[in-house]
Amino acid sequence: MPFERILICGAGVAGSVLAYWLAKHDFHVVVVERSKTEQTAGQGLEIEEPALKIIKSMRILDKLNQKKTGEMGFNLVDEQARSHGILEAGGVSPTGALELMRGDLTQILFKAADGSANVTYQFETTIQSLRQTQDKVIVDLENRNDKTIATEEFDLVVGADGVRSRTRQLVMGSPEELNCFKLVGAFVAYFSIPREDQDWPYSQLCHFTGRRIIWMRPLGKESKMTSVYLIHVHDDVPNLRRANAAGDRLKQKEAFAEIYSGLGWETPRVIQQMMRAENFYSDELVQVKLQKWSQNRVVLLGDAAWAPSPFTGQGNQLAIIGAWVLAQELSRNRNLVAFEMYEKRLRSYVENAQSIPLGGYGPYIFNPQTRWGIWLLRTSVRLVSWTIHFVSWLKLARILARILPDQPHSDFDLEIEEVEVNGAR
């Protein structure tokens, strides 16, 4: 019997894109998400080709453009707030042409998928257990508000529930058993603080010795908040590691406050407001590497299967592309062969995208340990900024675009011409 009813665990980018396309292929989809409907802020992200082609096919590009942060570019500053080079949006700048906050993107994707009669969302709901039979997956779902548990049957289950995937643990085992977490050697925190005039219109990043970064990014011209990233490249910070393992938000904040104590620029303001931030999130960066992405009737998608880490800049892209391919293969093979084809098409592309720049040394090169290293990096960015402005002034951008090779990770074949999607041509 072909698959008809599918459970997706996770209403993030991968989960909602998958739900949208499965509904177009006449599957009945239930999406469960442990969080509330409203997703606030999160980190900034960009959508590029070939993922952008999928987004255009969903006919939501106009809505995404309306939610762009408006960030005009990237400004590298020092402890006295002096600029060492501005990189305008697009091109080599960390600011992309379609720069969004994760919360805005997930909301738009959710509404696009939820618009189908074939899709049902259940927020504040978690998967507690599952049992696979020959032709079904029996799942216990818990409502986090009233603690009630409902038992339902599905033809298959998709775990799109992130790096710490509950679905993966239930089906395949713990990360320790699977040995699937590969430490990147960095700790991060994301949160928002009240905006001040100097926070607009460029994102601003300041380096400090000991491989510490503060990156502040505007959320929009009319927004009253500014997004902050703290990035500490270090392979062992015991206090922070213990706080992350325990999920103790106060201890996490205290550990970051200690790491960034006594530094200049906007640090005192950032730390003071961090202690009050309600949307604070911290973790140790890891990559997820699995030998297989599925087991019988359960398959993993996005970070649950292959988290590349933010240092690659490919997490969002892979989530969208992976969801497209999985939906495509399920439409072609309404049986377990779909999982084999999904992995066969994507595996090498994902492994290539997981490569951390500069042979894995990118995080260390771009986050120096010493004052000399920081000076060298600032000088390099200043030279790049001057060069870009000079090239633009000479109107050579079009010529260089023809000479330079394509961007990495842009060569994946979506096979988009071969698939007819009802109402999305």
Describe what this molecule looks like in 3D.
- By secondary structure, the protein is of the alpha/beta class.
- The chain has a domain at 5-68 and 100-180 and 287-358 and 408-418: FAD/NAD(P)-binding domain, CATH 3.50.50.60.
- It has 15 helices and 18 strands.
- A seven-stranded mixed beta sheet has the order 5-4-13-14-15-12-16, sandwiched between helices. Strands 7-2-1-11-18-17 form a six-stranded mixed beta sheet, with helices on both faces. It has a three-stranded antiparallel beta sheet with strand order 8-9-10.
- Helix 11 (315-332) runs antiparallel to helix 12 (337-353).
- The radius of gyration is 22 Å and the shape is globular.
- The two termini are 29 Å apart.
Task: Give a concise summary.
With 425 residues, the protein is an alpha/beta fold. It is 35% helix and 25% strand.
Features of this protein?
single chain, 425 residues, alpha/beta, FAD/NAD(P)-binding domain, 15 helices, globular, disordered C terminus
Question: Nearest-angstrom radius of gyration?
Answer: 22 Å
The CATH class of the domain at 5-68 and 100-180 and 287-358 and 408-418 is identified as Alpha Beta
Structural class: alpha/beta
The averaged pLDDT comes out at: 89
Total beta-strand segments: 18
Q: Share of helix among residues?
A: 25-40%
How does the overall form come out from the CA principal axes?
globular
> Proportion of β residues?
15-25%
The total of helices stands at 15
Largest sheet strand order: 5-4-13-14-15-12-16
Low-pLDDT sequence parts: 392-408, 418-425
CATH superfamily of the domain at 5-68 and 100-180 and 287-358 and 408-418: FAD/NAD(P)-binding domain
Keywords: FAD, Flavoprotein, Oxidoreductase
Pfam families: FAD_binding_3
Domain FAD-binding: 6-331
GO molecular function: FAD binding; oxidoreductase activity
